[in-house]
Specification:
4-stranded antiparallel sheet, Alpha-Beta Plaits, alpha+beta, about 230 residues, single chain, 5 helices, 5-stranded antiparallel sheet, about 35% strand
Length: about 230
């Protein structure tokens, strides 16, 4: 008799080659559209950040609503930040020590002071529903064209998402142009795909917070609320 038990599939271990560097900050307020000013301030303090291929900046977002407060739609309006607000950089692990140069510094973000405090590395998530607030639009503002373009970008990474849901359009202002972006949620990825997407991002301008994915609640819940 020949008898062989099936070995359980080994649990995928998330590699730590890319991590989020989470900084405590002290900052009273920032403009809603602060991506360019914050990116420039980071690059001034960390000159290598601009040329590090795997580095990206998570822009700062307060809650969309809470205690009667709604997030302003005007990009020039101010976000009033709490002491719990964090700033995150997505970085190769070998750059964490270099990023410590930010500690104790006060950055000038478009005329707003932002002090950088404690740094805590955070591994990428195993959650398979991910979300980006800003994916640069390359094919107009039509949702169908946008999703088709997103599929092409996913395909270049070898990712085949089963579910995607695009959200509202926003802009990211630069000195000489304005980027048109949409939010995008993608679900039912494998854990390996989810980690790869967080590592690599999607589309251009990740130093401005575009194309960086973070964990999100299930896409079916979001669809029910929007219907």
């Amino acid at each position: 008799m020949y008898w062989q038990e099936h070995k359980p599939t080994e649990e995928y271990v998330v590699p730590d080659t890319i991590v989020d560097a989470v900084f405590g900050i002290t900052c009273r307020s920032l403009p809603v559209d602060h991506a360019y000013a914050l990116s420039q301030a980071i690059q001034t303090a960390l000159p290598w950040f601009a040329v590090e291929a795997d580095a990206g900046l998570h822009t700062i977002h307060g809650a969309d609503s809470g205690n009667g407060w709604m997030r302003p739609e005007d990009p020039r309006a101010l976000l009033h930040l709490s002491h719990r607000t964090k700033l995150m950089l997505r970085l190769p692990k070998h750059r964490l020590a270099d990023a410590e140069a930010l500690l104790g510094k006060t950055l000038d973000v478009g005329g707003h002071e932002l002090r950088m405090d404690k740094l805590t590395p955070r591994p990428l998530s195993r959650i398979t529903t991910l979300f980006t607030r800003h994916l640069v639009i390359a094919a107009g503002d039509d949702e169908t064209a946008f999703l088709k373009h997103a599929l092409e970008l996913f395909g270049a990474l070898g990712i085949r998402p089963a579910k995607m849901l695009c959200g509202k359009m926003t802009t990211v202002a630069l000195p000489a142009r304005v980027l048109q972006t949409r939010s995008l949620m993608v679900a039912d990825l494998t854990v390996e795909e989810a980690v790869l997407l967080q590592q690599r991002g999607l589309g251009p301008e990740r130093k401005l917070g575009c194309g960086l994915f973070i964990p999100h609640k299930d896409i079916n819940e979001v669809r029910r609320k929007s219907e």
